[in-house]
Design goal:
globular; two-stranded antiparallel sheet; single chain; mainly alpha
């Protein structure tokens, strides 16, 4: 069934878009990620303009994250205070990201920057996660028991000033790395159309030592409000949010996230990290291939938004 997208200005198969939203929503609930790192490339590979893909996916991330947050909130698996600090920093980062997005759009360099950024970030983070998860699986199979986090056991992050107590996560840590992390996720989410959960979750676990029992729910809470701000800013500033495309993705994402949240409780942490690492690397490799392969059409008729004004 074909449906016309008014902002993207092209017809698409509605069931294909719905399936994309559902699949990525499932991954959102499973891994505690917004899913934009996968959905944005899927839309771009399907022919949706990168600017529209990035801006519209932020709204889908909101819907799938909201569904996942509800599931984790019912289980009491969210550190609300930590999520609130991350959220405030994320909204500030989103505002800066929209400004850069508009600038790149006017310069006609947005598509190239998006592709290069995906290759760099996904390749680096996916590689690190893959190595770590494989080592964890190898240690478990070898019978090694992972060392538990003991009270008073800290890294250099815990020596920074401006400390705040987060009772749900049993942390007493500086707000500096929390603000920087939240701001960076908000910035990247707005520019690249990613929820940032694939970066947020490892950072909370390995840098801040947040207990794994509250990591996914807290990550989803931050993603929910940060991407909601990004959607509003994109709709007002860049005007590239396609509401028809967004609604189809939202419906599929909400349904998929509920199944993913249930499935996530049945898999071990090292298995989840391995699967997520492979997904991140696969998307990064696809973007790298597209950058290296000579296109069939060497010329583009795309009009730079605002060029004639």
């Amino acid at each position: 069934m074909q449906i016309y997208l008014p902002i993207a200005e092209l017809p698409v198969n509605m069931f294909m878009i719905f399936g994309m939203g559902g699949a990525v929503g499932f991954l959102s609930g499973l891994f505690g990620i917004g899913g934009g790192f996968l959905l944005t490339p899927l839309l771009i590979f399907s022919g949706i303009p990168p600017a529209v893909s990035v801006a519209t996916v932020t709204s889908q991330v909101v819907a799938s994250s909201a569904s996942g947050v509800l599931a984790y909130w019912r289980r009491g698996a969210i550190d609300m205070k930590l999520a609130f600090v991350l959220m405030l920093a994320g909204i500030a980062g989103s505002a800066l990201g929209v400004w850069l997005f508009e600038l790149l759009q006017r310069l006609g360099q947005l598509d190239l920057v998006i592709s290069l950024s995906y290759v760099t970030f996904l390749g680096t983070i996916g590689g690190l996660m893959l190595v770590e998860s494989l080592r964890a699986i190898q240690r478990r199979r070898g019978g090694a028991v992972p060392a538990a986090r003991r009270p008073g056991q800290h890294n250099w992050i815990h020596g920074l000033p401006f400390k705040m107590r987060f009772r749900r996560s049993k942390l007493y840590v500086s707000v500096i790395p929390i603000v920087l992390l939240g701001g960076a996720i908000g910035f990247l989410g707005t520019v690249l159309g990613i929820g940032g959960g694939f970066m947020m979750v490892p950072a909370l676990i390995y840098l801040l030592r947040v207990p794994t029992s509250v990591v996914i729910g807290t990550s989803l809470m931050q993603i929910l409000f940060t991407m909601a701000a990004a959607t509003i800013l994109h709709a007002i500033g860049t005007q590239t949010v396609d509401i028809v495309l967004a609604l189809i993705l939202m419906v599929g994402g909400v349904i998929g996230a509920q199944f993913g949240a249930r499935m996530g409780q049945k898999l071990r942490g090292d298995q989840l990290r391995l699967l997520l690492a492979l997904l991140v690397l696969a998307v990064g490799i696809r973007f790298a291939v597209d950058l290296l392969v000579v296109p069939d059409d060497l010329y583009s008729l795309a009009v730079v938004r605002g060029a004639g004004s």
